[in-house]
Amino acid sequence: MATKTFTEQANTALTSGSTAWDADGEGLHSELFFDAVRGLNNMAVKSGNYAVYAQGIASGKIQRGYTGAAREVFMAQVPVIVPPWRYRLLWTAGVTAVSGSITSVTTYISPVLYNGPASTFDATNIRRSSSEVISMGGITSGYALADASLSGIAPVPSSIVVSGDSQTIAYVIITITGGTTSTFTLRDYACWFSEQ
Amino acid sequence: MSKISVLGLYPPRFLDDSLRESARNGRPALASLVAKEVLLLNQIAYSGYPCYAWISDSDDLNSQQVHRQVYLPMNAGAVSEHAHVVYMDFSSIDSSPAFTTGQGITLDVGGTSEFVPLNYPGGIVAASVWPDDARRVSIETAHGGSASAEEVTITSEEENGPLMASGIFAQAGQSQVDSATSFPVGGANLHSKGNIVARSSLSLNSLHDFLTSYNDVFKRRRPQFGWCDARAGSYVDFTASKTNFRYIFDQTMGAGGTSFSAGGPAITLPLMYTAGGRDTQVRVYVYVYAAMSGATNTGTIGVANKNSSGTMASGASALTNGATISGTSFSWYPSLGSFDGSTEPYFLAYAGSRYDRVALCAKSSGSTDSVRIRAWTMIVRPMGDP
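^ Those are the sequences you sent over. The predicted structure of the assembly is below.
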């Protein structure tokens, strides 16, 4: 199968008149449909990227803490609309270490809700999910952005099935892995879908 | 009423570059190419898109939750809407979890509302544990297209549960739409494969629709983002430095405090490819649900974000066409109603890299009163409006 081309720049609006077709009988200018080949591909997957921004309601923060050994902690989960062309999920997460340290931030995309414990995350509850881990280098203070906007989670797992009958819903689940006895906050989170 | 298949919920049939040969250098475009483009255009227009998401976690909420947003359903594919809410039957602060008549969640879009009852007699009567007891419910409305900016509310109807832990509101995709009430490019008038387009008067309407629909999708089906403090009576109060632009989620950031940076506290807006043509900036219209703490001073909204070269501004600037916040009663600024892209408040966001970083800020005209914000919505639009 031939590879589809997605131009670097986004779409250009089509205009009536000499570069398109103004319905005055002069005939169809082929450029309209020449440009639309790439323009439509781009509109499908780039400008309409199904972006989601989510944040805690209480001053925008979600905070968790624990005493004892290092562990992965559930922070949040939010439903997302999966585009029919789903391929790649990109994301960023702003985090702050209040005490202790942050080793990494992870996003899972799952066809089902996470119904496991919050204090020690159990990924076996979402076996059909895919994930990406961003290392935070053990930060101990201040704000840091976990940036997974380059490669992201790809492909979105086939367990998330696209149906022509209803909008496809999946769940994005965010966890933070911390060091011994730590408290941290999830400050802001954004995710969006991208093509290959 | 007849239906037109627009297949907005199906994987799109992308177009191959080689197809452009069918419409090159003045050559009349083949009907087979036009048919493929019409199919893909309809799929995009009616594929739906997310508008608002939230995480309220297991915050103890001892009163009704109301999520409030602005929604701009001006695109041709606006037929219906839906919300997907992850909820628990009760919050940990509900003192006597039990069934209460009227428990449930209401989605209201511009006055079109739908209620879904939750919790049942004899059901769970203990405090819920997050996220162990998380469930999901879907609510659909059929408000459809509008020339106005509409208010969306998602409400937990009773104080005694349910707790809306997270969720999303979206314009719904469609696979079929009514031919008389919707705006697809009709397939009925397209020539059969192999015919030359624009050699028959029958093709006129379809081709004109294609141009109109293409531009509509291009300019009106764009991401929007939002946040809301859904707790009754809660808001962010800009008290740290009332007369300086400070960031809503970290009031140490801003004029007289810490300078902004791309890696510092801010909101990520993934806007690459959302501008038109080779533009590196795109308009983002801003609505805030705000009030003042008193009647003496007025408020102004600003943002700090990346400039046209992708460099993060160190300080915030007021919105273009910015509204003036006044009075102690919360309301939307600007007021809702017909949308005029030339007069609504906006800022230019950076679309030249994978994402912009945006710090929404507010300041007061004097030190007596502070600005209070309970919700905000950002709506992306390329320059101008069709």
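Residues 112 and 143 of chain B are 6 Å apart (CA to CA). Chain B touches chain A through 104 residues (CB under 8 Å).

Shout if you want it in another format.
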